[in-house]
Design a protein that fits this description.
Length: 188
């Protein structure tokens, strides 16, 4: 396990709150979407912060209704007013996610009760039925759901260390959890 994420219960209506822990079970980052104290349209972004509340990054979410079945939709992680990572989500029921970060392009595909992360997603990637099953390479990482003391556990590739793996992991969990109610992958 590289990171574990707990989803917190919120009494703030539509607010979503998350805590990210490292492999030594230390709280490293928090994510917050929809809390009333967030400024300007809190449902349209997720605030990613250190445990002291210092803002580190934001995950921008779509405005208005999005029909994920019709076209891919992109999400961006912004760090210091610059794009750090981009997620493209294909499909609504069993989404495939293409993720671009630090000159890498990965594909995250559902596989039963977890997601597998594959290296070198093709730049001309087009969603079609069954394309994830055609990937012959072994996965380089995984996102496991409902594990022991965490709601999500991430195993990231070790060959290419990222500058901000915790921020990327937390944004990815928030995004996958956002689609959890619509997917065939079961989330707690």
């Amino acid at each position: 396990m590289d990171f574990g994420v707990k989803r917190l219960n919120s009494e703030l209506g539509a607010a979503r709150l998350y805590h990210l822990y490292d492999k030594w079970d230390r709280l490293r980052f928090v994510a917050d979407q929809g809390s009333p104290w967030l400024a300007d349209n809190p449902q349209h972004y997720v605030r990613l912060a250190r445990t002291d509340g210092h803002l580190v990054a934001t995950l921008n979410l779509p405005w208005g209704d999005v029909d994920e079945e019709k076209r891919p939709f992109s999400y961006a992680v912004l760090v210091d007013h610059a794009v750090y990572a981009v997620f493209e989500v294909y499909g609504g029921k069993r989404p495939l996610i293409v993720l671009e970060v630090e000159e890498s392009r990965w594909l995250m595909a559902p596989d039963g009760d977890h997601f597998n992360l594959f290296d070198n997603a093709p730049s001309s990637f087009r969603l079609r039925t069954g394309q994830a099953e055609e990937i012959a390479d072994p996965p380089i990482g995984r996102l496991l759901c409902a594990q022991e003391s965490y709601d999500f556990v991430l195993e990231l590739p070790g060959k290419r260390p990222l500058r901000r793996p915790a921020i990327l992991s937390l944004a990815l969990v928030v995004l996958v959890d956002r689609f959890g109610e619509e997917t065939a992958v079961s989330f707690p």
